Amino acid sequence: WYLGQGNTPEIREVFLSCNEAVCECDELPEDGFAALEVLSLYLSKSLSETAALSVCRALPAARHLSLGMCHGITVPCMKELAQRCTRLRVLELSGNPHVTDQICEMLAQHCVDMEEIALDFCPFVSDAGLIALVEGMRNLH
């Protein structure tokens, strides 16, 4: 991760979809991506839980995250994401088997300004999870 060596103050968007090299990173510096607003890791199926946790911790300014089909985005990662990435406006979690109603409730509680959330093919999200999102996210459309 050359991008995360503390020399990225101006980078606002990074698109690494389907990139297996991302899956091998162990840790991103928590201050290395302070300004990053858009990150796409869509289809990075081999993303490890360690790498996913690191991503969630390193993006306090994130407004748009695409993490669909990233199977390393587990429940602990979702909790970290909900608590740290409170500025999120767009979140893509489609195809993630770890997204549950509980995760939806946490996102609704912490990410109240969310405008879009994609949960296609998330088998453990029921009507209760969707209702929590709609009730907690005032700008959701």
Keywords:
single chain, 141 residues, alpha/beta, globular
What is the helix tally?
A: 4
**Basic shape:** globular
- Helix-strand category: alpha/beta
Task: Give the termini separation.
Answer: 35 Å
Strand content: 5-15%
Sheet with the most strands, sense and barrel status: 5 strands, parallel
Number of DSSP strands?
5
Lateral strand order in the biggest sheet: 1-2-3-4-5
- Helix share bin: 25-40%
Q: Uncertain runs with pLDDT below 50, 5 residues or more?
A: none
Please compute the radius of gyration using only Cα atoms.
Answer: 14 Å
The H/E string reads EEHEHEHEH
Describe this structure in words.
The protein is 28% helix and 11% strand. It has four helices and five strands. Strands 1-2-3-4-5 form a five-stranded parallel sheet, with no helix packed on it. The longest helix has 10 residues, at 75-84. It is globular. The mean pLDDT is 81.
Write a concise synopsis of the structure shown.
With 141 residues, the protein is α/β, with parallel strands linked by helices. The chain has helices at residues 49-57, 75-84, 101-110, 127-136; strands spanning 13-15, 38-40, 64-66, 90-92, 116-118.
What secondary-structure arrangement, pairings included, does this model have?
Layout: E1 13-15, E2 38-40, H1 49-57, E3 64-66, H2 75-84, E4 90-92, H3 101-110, E5 116-118, H4 127-136
Parallel strand pairs: 1-2, 2-3, 3-4, 4-5
Helix pairs in contact: 1-2, 2-3, 3-4
